[in-house]
Design a protein that fits this description.
Strand order of the largest sheet: 3-2-1-4-5-7-6
Radius of gyration: 18 Å
Shape: globular
Strand content: 15-25%
Number of strands: 7
Helix content: 25-40%
Oligomer: single chain
Order of helices and strands: HHHEHEHEEHEHHHEHHE
């Protein structure tokens, strides 16, 4: 099977999985997605950097526990900004950004999953968010004009996209000169075992789709961004004391505890910043 066919297949698998998450069949991120109670979703979100105030500021159902960080913590959004949310899901980060940019600003969420877009639009209506718009689209081919947004955010999404280079090229296209981004994502600190890299469940669960950190940063710089820097980094949040999480890890690499520990310490969550070059 050639790369283009494989990429297309993986995108369909991801779309199907996240469509089922939007419908309530599953939630959370790991080597697979599983249903979780609301308290667990909140706990995950607080563990990756969101506050109780953040969780209370969004409509019910907007937070699905899919993030690996809080890109808004370092994004420095300001009143009047036009903000793009790549892979906006049910709208959690979009709604938080909307509060920062105010009535004179705007947030545009783009997601490839129709069920997520429908859920996000319903959440926006429920929360009376008039400065947020959700568009169905592929972040490798953004449905936006050139030089149209001031800032961009994304949360644990680009790792799932086959052509990461295209994502950052598109991001560079739609950002205005000197526009900036803050992205939370999963990267690798070392190569994954073969059985993880070839696992569909691991891919959809945010692990096997990740690439080495240095490669990730090189792609961003190659797309024309400057001031590219990691502003925060930690091992990806995996609670192996949770029996369900431990079982999922065993499914990825087997029952050997040392291999499970090695897997956990091969994956990092980073927040990375970049700026589009000024014209001239």
């Amino acid at each position: 099977m050639n790369d283009s066919v494989t990429d297309k297949k993986m995108k369909e698998i991801v779309k199907d999985k996240y469509g089922r998450i939007a419908a309530g069949a599953a939630s959370g991120c790991g080597c697979g997605c599983r249903p979780m109670p609301e308290e667990a979703v909140s706990s995950i979100s607080k563990g990756v950097g969101y506050s109780d105030a953040d969780l209370a500021a969004v409509p019910e159902g907007a937070n699905l526990g899919l993030g690996c960080g809080n890109p808004l913590a370092f994004s420095a959004l300001k009143e009047g900004d036009v903000v793009l949310d790549l892979g906006s899901g049910a709208g959690f980060d979009s709604f938080l950004a909307a509060r920062k940019v105010g009535k004179t600003g705007k947030v545009i969420g783009v997601d490839m999953t129709p069920e997520m877009i429908a859920k996000a639009r319903a959440n926006a209506m429920a929360g009376n968010f008039e400065n947020v718009e959700f568009l169905l689209g592929d972040i490798e081919a953004l449905p936006l004009p050139d030089n149209s947004v001031d800032a961009a955010i994304s949360n644990c999404v680009i790792n799932l996209v086959p052509d990461k280079q295209k994502v950052f090229q598109e991001l560079n296209r739609v950002l205005r000169p000197e526009g900036r981004f803050m992205i939370s994502d999963v990267v690798l600190l070392k190569e994954l075992p073969e059985e993880v890299r070839t696992s569909v469940e691991a891919y959809v669960g945010c692990v096997a789709g990740a690439i080495l950190k240095d490669q990730y940063l090189a792609i961003i710089r190659g797309a024309g961004f400057e001031d590219v820097r990691v502003v925060d980094e930690s091992y990806a949040a995996v609670d192996l004391d949770d029996p369900e999480v431990h079982e999922v890890a065993k499914q990825c690499v087997g029952a050997d505890e040392s291999r499970i520990d090695d897997l956990v310490h091969s994956v990092a969550s980073i927040k990375v910043h970049g700026v589009k070059k000024a014209t001239g």
